[in-house]
Amino acid sequence: MLWSTPGKTKRVPGKRKENERMKSWLWHKAELCKVGDQVGVIDEVPYFGDKKMWEPRLVGWLIGDGSYGNNKTPILSNCDEYINNYIFENFNAKVEKSYLTKDNKLYCETRIKGICKNLRELGIYGQTRGNKTLPINIDDYDFESLSELIGGLYDTDGYIRVDKDGRVRVILTQAYDTLLKQLQILLIKFGISSSIRYIKYKNERVHISNGKTIRSKNGEYRLEINDITSVCKFADRIPLTVQYK
After folding, report:
1. Could you read off the pLDDT of 126-175 as tens digits, one per residue?
2. How far apart (Å, rounded) are the C-alpha atoms in residues 123 and 131?
3. Are 192 and 162 in contact (CB under 8 A)?
4. Which residues are bridge partners to 242 per DSSP?
5. How far apart are CA 110 and CA 66, in angstroms?
């Protein structure tokens, strides 16, 4: 943990001789912290690799709305027109099941053939539900790859909420917190701060997964981006392809 102590006042060139109170930051054990100590939080760690990820946007979609268990052809379940069109235009895909949703959108469960090898190389093939993680060696990838990957996750499992007071929140939901903890660290590379909390449902929730009706009386984990600086950085650095979001 970091803490700060007041330093000497000095003049800052180029600021009309305005004085700036400088602080020297020191490593400090948490057990020795006192009331009144200031804790330093890392705003951004802009270090990226130079490796290009295979289809990072698709990988994000699959982690969010896909199924790719062992010995199975990966399936993407989605009702967004752009996502489904992209799948059919760029991959060997076959619709297993489809129907119109209540808001007249075409929901498709689509098998994507010939990508198991790619998912194995990323270290995610065979993962299911609470075992899903980000690709292995995630820090090896470049800015664009990680930005597209994160964007894919928010295309599927994320949403943007505007509170009554005008405050904007960017939220990603998951049934488990494992993936969210990894994503929280990854977002720091982009200068985006977030928090994770568990929301317990007051009443039974019903949703569709792989064509099956799932009833849950528990809750969900939410990764929330709340402060205006982080929300603006998200808007600038993480592109979304689902335009209504």
Report:
1. 998 889 999 999 999 999 999 999 999 999 999 999 999 999 999 999 98
2. 12
3. no
4. none
5. 9
Amino acid at 123: G
What tokens appear for 35 in the block? Answer: 């009331």
Residues in the chain: 245
- pLDDT digit string (tens) for 76-131? 999 999 999 999 999 999 999 999 988 899 999 999 999 999 999 999 999 988 89
Say how many C-beta atoms besides its own lie within 10 A of residue 87's C-beta: 20
Tokens 């981006």 belong to residue: 225
CA distance 84 to 91: 11
CB-based contact 235:225 (threshold 8 Å): no
Q: Where are the alpha helices (DSSP H) in the chain?
A: 56-65, 81-90, 116-121, 143-157, 178-188, 228-237
Of 52, 44, 243, whose CA–CA distance to 151 is shortest? Answer: 243
Phi, psi of 109 (to 5 degrees): -105, 110
